[in-house]
Amino acid sequence: MRIGLLAQRTGVPPRLLRYYEEQDLLHPERADNGYRDYPESAVRLVQQIRGLLDSGLTTEIIRRILPFLDDPSRIHLHPQCLTPDLAALLEAEADRLQERIDCLSRNRDAIHAYLAAVRALRSGPA
């Protein structure tokens, strides 16, 4: 399938699909006319890449673990894949994600506190 159809089926713009190719995440064939030609399996692969990116993983990490994934909703690393270098990279990524989670939790709590204070003022004595 051509890039336009893959974009339509996945909701990912062609520009991002080309970026995924530049990042060595997608590997389309090339037709005689030079157009990218994606197999049907690219739909699932792009959805998997999007899910991993949305979860906060970097393209570097995704590139290294993508060959070992067997399901778009779970990461199953083959033991041979987890080198000391990759383990350190994943640990740093987990720490970075935890910092984001902590920050988001603080922001959520501040929003709830603000809403509670405003609602208490509105419902207070008139």
Tell me what the structure shows.
- With 126 residues, the chain is mainly alpha-helical.
- The chain is 62% helix and 3% strand.
- It has five helices and two strands; from the N terminus they run ααββααα.
- The protein has helices at 3-10, 14-22, 41-54, 59-65, 84-123, and strands at residues 29-30, 36-37.
- The chain has a two-stranded antiparallel ribbon.
- Strand 1 (29-30) and strand 2 (36-37) form a beta hairpin.
- It is flat.
Number of helices: 5
Most strands sheet: 2 strands, antiparallel
Shape: flat
Q: How many angstroms separate the termini?
A: 66 Å
Compute the CA-based radius of gyration.
21 Å
Which regions are unreliable across 5 or more consecutive residues at pLDDT < 50? none
Beta-strand percentage range: under 5%
